[in-house]
Amino acid sequence: MAISPVPMEPTGGALTETTLNSEDSRRFGNLRGVQWRIDLGILPSSPSSSVDDLRRVTANSRRRYAALRRQLLVDPHLPKDGSSSPDLVIDNPLSQNPDSMWGRFFKNAELERMVDQDLTRLYPEHGSYFQTSGCQGMLRRILLLWCLRHQEYGYRQGMHELLAPLLYVLHVDVEHLSEVRNMYEDYFTDKFDGFSFHESDLTYKFDFKKFSELMEDGNGSGKVAANASSLSQLDPNIQTIVLLSDAYGAEGELGVVLSEKFMEHDAYCMFDALMNGSGGAVAMAEFFSPSPFASSHTGFPPVIEASAALYHLLSLVDSSLHTHLVELGVEPQYFSLRWLRVLFGREFALEELLIVWDEIFACENCKLNKLAENDVDTSSGVLDSSRGAFISAFAVSMILYLRSSLLATENATSCLKRLLNFPDDVKLEKLIRKAKSLQALAVDANNSNPLLTQAGMFERSESAAVRGHSLSFDATSPRTPLTLVPDSYWEEKWRNLHKEEERKKDALEKQAPSIRKGWSEKVKLGLSRTESAPSSSSVDKRKKDPKLSVRRNLLEDLARQLGADEDTQSIMDDERADVKDQGVEDGQDFNDKFACTTEQTCLSGNAGSEENSSIFSDPPSPINGVNDHGNESGRSSVASNSSIDEHDGGTNTAELCAHNPEGLPLPVSDSPDDVSLEASPNDQTAAEKSTVGLKERKLLSSSKFQWLWKFGRGGGEGIPEKGQVSEANKGCSNRFDHDSVTRCSASNGGVILSSESSKGETVDQNVMLTLRNLGQSMLENIQVIESVFQQDRAQAAPAKNVLVGKGQVTARSALKELRKISNLLSEM
Amino acid sequence: MVLVLALGDLHIPHRAPDLPAKFKSMLVPGKIQHIICTGNLCIKEVHDYLKTICPDLHITRGEYDEETRYPETKTLTIGQFKLGICHGHQVIPWGDLDSLAMLQRQLDVDILVTGHTHQFTAYKHEAGVVINPGSATGAYSSITYDVNPSFVLMDIDGLRVVVYVYELIDGEVKVDKIDFKKTTASANSAH
């Protein structure tokens, strides 16, 4: 290829200046490594940049890489940050602390293992280069460092295939260099000042005896000088190579642009530039991320957007093929994911791929639609440059190449098969020419692509014929969850454990956070399954969760007994009533407190805070026992108070609580609404009680599911972090102490009446068991509440009102009472 | 960079119910390449548990072990180091450095790991290193009741071994580190 001569500055005085040829052709056409570096933006691309500039930029980028390597590759034996005595409790090899040196070491080891898995399978047909340990080592280090540097992407399969050709071209360049070196040995001699010294001779070639020989030597050096001056008459290619590899030019050895020693550095820079897009639009890294591109308006991952752009272009070019593919249900990302992520690396052989990439990189990468970014109709951001346009044009031309065979098939699988096994014997020039012709069209298509807006996508999917087209936004492409390099299971547990422990430094009692956490996790686990069917009819589902199964059993017991024997059911009520009678005032307080707290928490849940895990009351029994009262009233008052501000210690909440001492506080559940409206409150006859009880149980079960569901949503979060709920709790308990007496008598009356109607005394063993379990769970709840209190005490909570001080005291006493009750229960 | 765990004298279930929870949370599978156990586990369940941490397990027989087929002594080579294991009740006086050094010379090892005294010690003498990882559960011994749970992790890297000692003192894990270097001659040298 024709090369415009490089303007050279006199180095060592022997070379002459040549004028810059302002041709359009590429400067380093046969030195792909250099050319690509220019295209990717690492080396300055302006034609007037001299070799020295190139060298300087090269040197800088290499220095950066070297620094990065030193910084990120962790040797656990060396103390971090030069500290001479690392804190051994943190920095020992078994430390779970993921921030410790060893933690990082193991994480890096994990990442390296993943990278290795891919590398061993890289280009086996070119195994002679790629599978050598030197090359593999370089690839591994580069990938590792890039992934450590860009934690948000992590390592994805395919990155290694983008890197490999980059390294390959550098390698080819270096080989070319050594060939040239062999051919033109003279020019590569180590002449930094124009003199050449034969090894055995004297420096000052003045042998007084052999003066004549000196004359010859002088001539010899003159000859060398003559040789040097004829360099400029050499092929300009060779000139450039010589200059680029002169070890004494600008920046010395670090600036030798074609250097084997620094291949790793250069490859890293190229890879980085390719992934980042160097400020342009096409950033390959975007293709690996499942999250939507920052400035995209469609909210889809960039790969999906790019695939859609592809299809859009296809529709413009060849609408029949497009409609055919869409009708068959061939989503573009099925094949284009692979095409785009490795830039067609899997579709072509290595040599052909290099030609394709030449073309791709030759296109400019600057964003074309800078001004129109706010426009809703802007195209997919990631392909928004002429390079991106070329990529999509090339992809379309590939699809068009297969046109006849695609149109011939009638089912999606064989279409995909055809597309994914691109034929080997394709004429690249044709494809490239076609792509170039489509490129302009692609740019336009990008500009005016209304179909890429969300509405547009829906439109298209609706209008297309059958078979599941709606661009399924979740799982079409094999998306791997993008997270930071995830902590391993043990490290997560360690983190959670230590977070909680830090907060309980001055715990009064030994907490069992893991127990609680485990419990809440179990509940959450069970609940995520119940979420979809929050009705009493789902009672029969068998869950693995023992806690839930306990409650389910309880419900089943209730249901069974309800259906079979009214007596036993009323007996059960009696049981609970007895329980309550035993610790009358306390029980009442407890019930009320729990009721109100759940209420409050539900309200707060409605108000948006979801971390209510600690306050949910699970024991259905007390609620069940006293739920003959005031369902309706409770509900209405709850509804009316849905916008309560919990911090407000005003009358609203007091009133609310007064109305609904044992309320089934579920404004969320819809189905119980009907039930409760039918329920006749305050009716004490057994029969009616049973029906009421039934409805209430339904209410209860559904409401309980709802509670537990809400619980589960917040449960997995561990310690609730907002003080709102606990404040509400305190406020409530505070108020309850005032109202407890009145309410106590009221509900006790109800309870006693119900007990009068009970008949036999047979106690169901299941019930005992469940009661015991309930006691246990209450105990755990207590622990949770206590932990919340301590946490709040430890935290500097903002804007707590006076209520809190009193609230804490009363809460504490209330908790003690709770403890008594639960002990009683468990003893039962 | 080979991590070798050395522990022993657990006496589960007779004298202790289980390893301390903090130790258990640290011993996760995947990090450790070898386990050396001086003996007195005592039951098979403990053997299985240790196997889950690392499949490469070397045990010698302690006097209370219920598995009779463990050997009395064992030697293995890891990296540049030769390690020897023995429970230590056979070497009298118990815990005596000179007698243990005799055993070390007999086995011809650089690092000798013994137990039985339930006290952590690490001696260095010109022939090598003698390490006693103590009792991992803090079980009482024939000599004393005052035992802190402890175990040892060795990081063998070329000619250097770094010994991390983990002790549970007052409910907190304390870690200490000792460096040993081996000269290319078979004798160890002080670091």
Automatic annotation (TrEMBL), chain A:
Region called Disordered, residue ranges: 1-22, 525-546, 605-692
Pfam families: RabGAP-TBC (PF00566)
Keywords, alphabetical: GTPase activation
GO molecular function, one term: GTPase activator activity
This protein's record includes keyword Glycoprotein: no
Domain of life of the native organism: Eukaryota
Compositionally skewed regions (Polar residues) per UniProt: 529-538, 605-616, 633-643, 679-688
UniProt domain Rab-GAP TBC: residue ranges: 26-364
An annotated GO cellular component: cytoplasm
PROSITE patterns, sorted: TBC_RABGAP
Protein name: Rab-GAP TBC domain-containing protein
Organism: Coffea arabica
Name of the gene this protein is made from: LOC113695954
UniProtKB/TrEMBL annotation, chain B:
Gene3D superfamilies tied to this protein: 3.60.21.10
Domain Calcineurin-like phosphoesterase: 4-157
Domain of life: Eukaryota
Pfam family, one: Metallophos_2
Keyword set, alphabetical order: Protein transport, Transport
GO biological process annotation, one example: protein transport
GO CC term, one of those recorded: retromer complex
Stored NCBIfam families: yfcE
Family per similarity comment: Belongs to the VPS29 family.
Protein name stated in the entry: Vacuolar protein sorting-associated protein 29
Upper classification of the organism: Eukaryota, Viridiplantae, Streptophyta, Embryophyta, Tracheophyta
